[in-house]
Structure prediction request, 378 residues.
Amino acid sequence: MRPIRRIALSTGGGDAPGLNAVIRAATLAARNRGWDVVGIRDGFNGIMFPDEYDGKGVITLSRESVRGIVHQGGTILGTTNRGNPTAFPVQQPDGTWVEEDRSQELIDKFDEHDIDALISIGGDGSLTIACHLYEAGLRVIGVPKTIDNDLERTASTFGFHTAVDFASQCIDRLFSTATSHGRVIVVEVMGRYAGWIALHSGVASGAHAVLIPEIPYDLEHVAETIRRREERGAKFSIVVVAEGAKPKGGDVSIVGKSVGQAERLGGVGQAVGDALGELTGKEARVVVLGHLIRGGSPTAHDRLLGLRFGAAAVRALDEGHNGIMVALNPPTVDYVPLASVRGRQKNVPLDSDTMLTARDLGVNFGDAPPIEPNLGES
Ligand code: F6P
Prediction:
């Protein structure tokens, strides 16, 4: 393997608070080894389509360019969840779309730029692309990123803590207005097909019901939970719904799907709010937190995790690793094969301590009647 002189960083998929911490740590750790560092704009678009960037699709990352960015949300490199180079959407003359594998073209571009290795920072989609590029001959290290916390082989991802923290603060605020009006408030949170954000923010903020993709729901159980609370004098209820939650025997709510992109989830909160209003006769309001929980400054926890992942990715390259992902295996950061992450999704284990805690607290998951006996307390 030729010695490393120049590496590239790329951020792909939905942004997550903590990305800039990875960029800073990887840049400084590489510069401290005497390596040059470049950043590719908007996933791989900056290197694939230089004309669209006036020649600035690949930018030099220096100490100065990564100064003061750790506390900033988003990514200074930009990102995209379109234009997967291994399955690039191309429109045919008849209007239909086909997917082309353009990964060799991308690898050739890396050669043109004298890039010896890539640190690819992303979620399941970007890490699958990274694995493909590694198998096609590129030297690649993956860094796991997602607010959804749904990546396998790592205890958690940066962005998740910030998302849960902010969602919990929002739910805290909804308690007072729900109490004043005696309403049911349904809060929809992101998370794709995993319920981590809904579960953690819902339990941390004392929600009365939490609906997650891992447990298809029957709203009669949630309605009964609300009625029981009403009988005990608690006129309001808070229900947290993961965007990927679905009714028993039903399917997830989809906003839409465009070519070359994953399906966009959304709408389940409104459906749940409408149905609970009818079932309980109470006034229900729906709040969709959406991209708010993906923005903003990362928590100290996510900054540190991002810094640890960025530095570990450079150490891994320096130690001669290839085709691996850095992963949190508390208390340390390990390396796991990229191939072991591909195509897998980490869901909430239903026997996990957090789930058991929630059940002990009487949180209803829409799969069974409320457990707490009616003792006349609220
Ligand atoms: O994967 C992160 C995430 O924020 C999901 O929770 C959500 O479903 C999706 O991205 C939204 O993506 P977009 O940025 O395309 O709206």
Summary: Residues 90 and 98 are 5 Å apart (CA to CA). The first strand starts at residue 6 and ends at 11. Residues 14, 81, 123, 146-148, 190-192, 243, 264-265, 294 surround 6-O-phosphono-beta-D-fructofuranose (CB under 6 Å).
